[in-house]
Amino acid sequence: MGTIIIPTVVSLSVLGLVLAIVLYLVAQKFKVEEDPRIDDVEAVMPGANCGGCGFAGCRAFAENCVKAGSLDGFFCPVGGNAVMQKVADTLGLQVEEKEPMVAVVRCHGTCDNRETTNIYDGCTSCKVKANLYSGDTGCKYGCLGCGDCVQACKFGAISMNPKTGLPEVDENKCTACGACVKACPKGVIELRNKGKKSMRVFVKCINKDKGAVARKACKVACIGCGKCKTVCPFDAITVENNVAYIDFTKCRLCRKCAEACPTKAIWDVNFPVRVPKAEPKPAAAPAPAAAPAPAPEVKPVETPKNE
Amino acid sequence: MKTFKIGGVHPNDSKISKDCAIEDFPVLERAYLSMAQHLGAPAEPIVQKGDKVKVGQLIAKPSGFVSANIHSSVSGTVAAVEPYADLAGNPVMHVIIDVEGDEWEESIDRTPDVVREIKLSKEEIIKKIQECGIVGLGGASFPTHIKLTPPPGKVAEYLLINGAECEPFLTSDYRLMLEQPEQVLIGAKIMMKALDVTKCRFGVEENKPEAIAKLKTFAAQYPEIEIVPLKKKYPQGGEKQLIEALTGRRVPSMGLPIDAGAVVQNCGTALAVYEAVQKNKPLFEGIVTVTGNCSEQQRNFRLRAGTPIINLLDAIGRIPADAAKIISGGPMMGKAVSNLLAATVKSSSAILMLTEEETKRKPESNCIRCGKCIDACPMGLEPYLLVRYARANMFDELETEKIYDCIECGCCLFSCPAYIPLLDHIRAAKAEVMKIMRSRPKK
């Protein structure tokens, strides 16, 4: 027995030692000098590798940060300001604080609001559907409802509401990486600032048709009447191509536009319920039937206004 | 018997309307003439609301190099020039005309006599074709005068006439070859003169023996035109496939038929050319097959452009109750009509009604790497691979795999045992890749 085991152990040990020395020497010879700070930066990154920063992953982001020597134009949407501050500390650089953003679905063409004009039986992909034709409703701008955004989201923040047939964004999970914005062939989803206490005002429609046409296709379409623009005291609203757009950098959340909108296409979300003042609110148009219950307090999910 | 070498499938040809003679479809009260009846830039309307127009009068001029004239298909008053939804529901500029009587332009020769002598010169022929707004009637609606003017440095050797009609259900070309064979052959002669070629081959699939026989009797007077029966295989009528079948040459990737020394024209186009050059008649009507297994009647109409599809279907009786999908074109490459108010165009070839059973897609399952799609692809692509890349948005890889060569014939989808919507994904990704390729600066 011993005559077999001992030579085996010895020969293998010697072989292992020789190869280890060879490997060591080769490793020394072909050593790649890498900035150790890249590892440090990568260590503080969230590691989601979502690509939301515009680079291939967290490692690539770290490499580019270190190479650039300044953090201008770099932002990790997943980690937000906290992570960017850590990155800045690691590299000894300055970073500007950025307002947190969130993905916003700008369409409320639910099954009730938007009549189906034909049945789509092709494959479940918005990209394919958009390439084929204008869609299965009268509105050719709105959400196609095949869920490409849901597929694109790596954080499970978007889900399809089977009742409305529209995607809903979970604000707590959304990191504003922008993957859904890129995935949507109709450009329905937009990144907007999260707002103070998550309070936001936005136009939930992107229909560029003339008022009558838009309204015929969808009950809650923006008809481009411009009433919101007139009432806005901060000049935050523009009406172009028959659709209003609220510039969130200028909006001060006064909510006058939401009140003025005749089709209730302007939404204000996460606002506390208003204490009725002396002057009552103008009679609201019938609220969307599929909408959830009234919002008694600050809620993470978007809830329609004034119910 | 000749055919192309790689790929292809054999769908049931379902030519149920083949014995219906061509009838003139009555002119309706209103005509909706699209400004995008051809490939390329939409035409620009030159008439205004209130203008009186006659049948065959020019109503729109081309707005770019690849574009074509559009002529009125009816006589009456222009009711509006405004966007109107097309087959896919997208708004396109239309000239809408209220029909009053049926007054044709005096210059059009409406007699049935066959004019055999070609008087015009080469340049005059091409000019005439351009003036008359002739576009390819094989499906892509490419302006014919551009096809007949080979780019400098390239020489055409063959004129190939496409009478394959490989799409199931369609019989418009078949009826044409049967009822007006001599006119089609004269049309081919005219195009031969325009191209300065001496060889012309006319490919007809073997499932149309009557048409082959009829064309052969008339072709005796035109020895330069060779009638070639082709094996029945889809997509025989694809430009590149037809060139391979008739000449044995292959068009290089990204190349044009002229790179293989050939110009392909549909037999419908040949008739349109004959009518334009010999009879001075612009292209504003064409043969449209109205068919479907669920439909009681099958018809072949000579239909003016601008007829709303709903009116066309009403005219042959009600839309069958079990018709679930209406397709403009054939079942393989046609487009589903999502808007029945949309109007036909001059290159419309068929309106097909399918039942839910015929059209319903079976649930998709996983790819089992059987390779049937690769065998079926007539362009030698690997559809399953393209779809994998397309789903991951890997556009560089898609370009390396030559997705731009895809002719969107649907053979892969037809052959897939897992019912994967291969073509849907490839078509969407191809559009994306083409956009990227076009955005690159030209060398």
Can I get a quick summary?
Chain A is of the alpha+beta class and 307 residues long. In chain A, 31% of the residues lie in helices and 11% in strands. Chain A has ten helices and eight strands.
* CATH homology superfamily of the largest domain in chain B: NADH-ubiquinone oxidoreductase 51kDa subunit
Mean pLDDT of chain A: 85
Tally the beta strands of chain B.
17
**Overall outline of chain A:** elongated
- Contiguous uncertain segments of 5+ residues of chain A: 279-307
- The order of strands across the largest sheet of chain B is 1-14-13-17-15-16
Task: Detail the topology: elements first, then pairings.
The complex is a heterodimer of chains A (307) and B (443).
Chain A: H1 2-29, H2 36-44, H3 58-68, H4 80-91, E1 101-105, H5 126-132, H6 148-152, E2 158-161, E3 166-169, H7 179-183, E4 189-193, E5 200-203, H8 211-217, H9 227-231, E6 237-240, E7 243-246, H10 256-260, E8 266-269
Helix pairs in contact in A: 2-3, 2-4
Chain B: E1 22-24, E2 30-34, E3 44-45, E4 52-53, E5 58-61, E6 70-71, E7 76-85, E8 91-99, H1 122-131, H2 144-147, E9 158-163, H3 172-179, H4 181-195, E10 199-205, H5 209-219, E11 225-230, H6 239-247, E12 262-266, H7 267-279, E13 285-291, E14 299-304, H8 309-315, E15 323-328, E16 335-336, E17 350-355, H9 356-359, H10 372-376, H11 383-391, H12 395-400, H13 411-415, H14 422-439
Parallel strand pairs in B: 1-14, 9-10, 9-12, 10-11, 13-17
Antiparallel strand pairs in B: 2-8, 3-5, 4-7, 5-6, 7-8, 13-14, 15-16, 15-17
Helix pairs in contact in B: 1-4, 3-5, 4-7, 11-14
